[in-house]
Automatic annotation (TrEMBL):
<keyword id="KW-0274">FAD</keyword>
<dbReference type="GO" id="GO:0046872">
    <property type="term" value="F:metal ion binding"/>
</dbReference>
<dbReference type="InterPro" id="IPR001433">
    <property type="entry name" value="OxRdtase_FAD/NAD-bd"/>
</dbReference>
<keyword id="KW-0285">Flavoprotein</keyword>
<dbReference type="InterPro" id="IPR001041">
    <property type="entry name" value="2Fe-2S_ferredoxin-type"/>
</dbReference>
<dbReference type="Pfam" id="PF00111">
    <property type="entry name" value="Fer2"/>
</dbReference>
<dbReference type="Pfam" id="PF00970">
    <property type="entry name" value="FAD_binding_6"/>
</dbReference>
<keyword id="KW-0560">Oxidoreductase</keyword>
<dbReference type="InterPro" id="IPR050415">
    <property type="entry name" value="MRET"/>
</dbReference>
<dbReference type="GO" id="GO:0051537">
    <property type="term" value="F:2 iron, 2 sulfur cluster binding"/>
</dbReference>
<dbReference type="InterPro" id="IPR012675">
    <property type="entry name" value="Beta-grasp_dom_sf"/>
</dbReference>
<dbReference type="InterPro" id="IPR008333">
    <property type="entry name" value="Cbr1-like_FAD-bd_dom"/>
</dbReference>
<dbReference type="InterPro" id="IPR036010">
    <property type="entry name" value="2Fe-2S_ferredoxin-like_sf"/>
</dbReference>
<keyword id="KW-0479">Metal-binding</keyword>
<feature type="domain" description="FAD-binding FR-type">
    <location>
        <begin position="45"/>
        <end position="146"/>
    </location>
</feature>
<comment type="similarity">
    <text>In the N-terminal section; belongs to the FAD-binding oxidoreductase type 6 family.</text>
</comment>
<dbReference type="InterPro" id="IPR017938">
    <property type="entry name" value="Riboflavin_synthase-like_b-brl"/>
</dbReference>
Length: 381
């Protein structure tokens, strides 16, 4: 964005975003009226209007969606995610999706895999059209490349966990970094492999980028005869493909590594790195919320929603799901404890953090999506 454009936007904001204007526009706020005049206008950079400019079918169950946001959008770092706000059947839904394109692009892109239990992911895969408008947030998250790029990097991804990794690899290669880059990528089979052709093309074009795809289903044409799930053999094979990492591989000295995907993959990679004494070299991002495990004793107590004057019997699931099933519509985004959109004040009671196991007692802000009630709990909802 040019200095002139920024100055003009600031002047326009000063004119319309004043206490008097907002008082006259109450209770909806001036932003709602601006949307009526032009759907691409906004004052709120947490809900930036974006037009769908292209939709690419990546696999049978995944699409890439190119976005053209208004001038409130700013630069992002490869590996970050955005919150997507979309209205379906008159109800607002919020979800988080990683950006899947180089950070140098002017049009951000998300790639969405259609999950059996994912209402919004299914909608985006089957109903969204070029020309439609949605709202997005500014980019968030710290699963990003370091300021100083090291001489070697290893990425491990599975399924839709490839999306932030794709953005990082694209960014590194577009910037022409000469680091030794290796990707170990898992999918069910060749047809379910997101970005397969693009990754193979990059591997052919860039000698410093090595790619190893491993399929969990039986495949007689599997690369190097490797199949199944992550193990040390796969790790060492991936590293051996990059000549720059030959000595490191022999010494079992691992480069800075990123892993993204389902919980099973994250746990396996973390265990292997801990075994090899390189846990400090691994950064991870999960693409599925932790499951609410049964705690000692029976599920008991009631959950009171103070603002709505309602309550439900605690069934042991996370508080976000229980609130939604009770007819409430709390704000939410990633649904896995990353974005903090569902943060809510707990006024009394104790909850367990599903991800860490930590217990929160008494009045405290909690994230509903990863909080499990331990008896009676009151929430400011």
């Amino acid at each position: 964005m040019s200095l002139a454009t920024t100055t003009a936007r600031s002047a326009w904001r000063r004119i319309v975003d004043t206490p008097l204007i907002n008082a006259l526009a109450a209770p909806h706020g001036i932003g709602r009226y601006l949307e009526v005049i032009n759907p691409m206008w906004s004052l709120d950079n947490t809900r930036i209007p974006a037009r769908i400019t292209n939709i690419t079918r990546e696999t049978d169950d995944s699409v890439s969606i190119e976005l053209s946001p208004n001038g409130e959008w700013t630069h992002f770092q490869a590996g970050q995610f955005i919150q997507v706000h979309i209205e379906v059947n008159g109800r607002q839904h919020n979800r988080c999706y990683s950006l899947s394109r180089s950070a140098f692009t002017t049009k951000p892109r998300i790639t969405v895999k259609d999950h059996d239990d994912g209402f919004i992911s299914h909608y985006l895969n089957t109903q969204l059209k070029v020309g439609d408008r949605i709202a997005i947030s500014l980019a968030q998250g710290d699963f990003v490349l370091p300021t100083q790029i090291p001489s070697a990097l290893l990425f491990v991804a599975a399924g839709s966990g490839i999306t932030p990794v794709m953005a990082m690899i694209d960014t590194l290669l577009e910037y022409k970094h000469d680091s030794a880059i290796t990707l170990l990528y898992y999918s069910r089979n060749k047809t379910s492999c997101i970005f397969k052709e693009r990754l193979e093309e990059l591997a052919q074009q860039h000698p410093n980028f090595s790619l190893l795809m491993v399929y969990s289903q039986n495949d007689s044409t599997a690369e190097h005869g490797l199949q199944g799930h992550f193990n040390q053999q796969h790790l060492l094979k991936a590293l051996s493909l990059n000549p720059a990492l030959t000595e490191q591989t022999k010494a079992l000295s691992l480069p800075l590594s990123y892993v993204c995907g389902p919980e099973q993959l994250i746990n396996a990679v973390q265990s292997e790195y801990e075994l090899l004494g390189h846990k400090d070299k691994l950064l991870s991002e999960r693409f599925k919320a932790a499951t609410a495990a049964q705690y000692e004793g029976e599920v008991a107590g009631d959950i009171a929603f103070n603002k709505s004057l309602s309550n439900v019997a605690n069934d042991g699931r996370n508080l976000l799901e229980q609130a939604e099933d009770a007819g409430l519509n709390p704000q939410s985004g990633c649904r896995m404890g990353i974005c903090h959109t569902c943060s809510c004040l707990k006024t009394s009671g104790s909850v367990r953090n599903i991800s860490t196991g930590e217990i929160s007692h008494g009045e405290e802000h909690i994230r509903l999506c990863i909080s499990q009630a331990l008896g009676d709990v009151s929430l400011s909802l």
